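It would be a great kindness if you could assist me with a short task in structural biology. The matter concerns a single protein, recorded as an amino acid sequence and a row of backbone structure tokens. Could you please explain, in whatever detail you think fit, how the structure tokens follow from the sequence? Thank you for your consideration; the sequence and its tokens are set out here:
___
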Amino acid sequence: MPFRIEKRGGRKTIIPPQDDTTTTPSAPEDNQTIIKALGRAFRWKRMLDSGEFQTLKELAAHENISPSYMTRVMRLTLLAPDIVEDILNNRAQALTLSDLLNPFPVDWAKQRHDFAI
């Protein structure tokens, strides 16, 4: 059976061939990976803000992940609130976790423009 593999939200997904007789549209991309990353980012920020951990390096060691990855994920806490809301309400289907882990502007208006929201 022919198929293709696509990366969606940081995971590989097997895509079956499109059947011309199928009338139902394909399901939208699952935002669970982005939502999970947002949850982690805000949890880590809260842990640092509360003083539970003194440095990001200390927190990264506790979570068994690299400090550079933690830094990229924690950048998600700088997203405009309406963008976060759109992600949580599954209205930002064009965004992927890869898009969000790349550097983006801190200015919320520029974020909306760059992410076309």
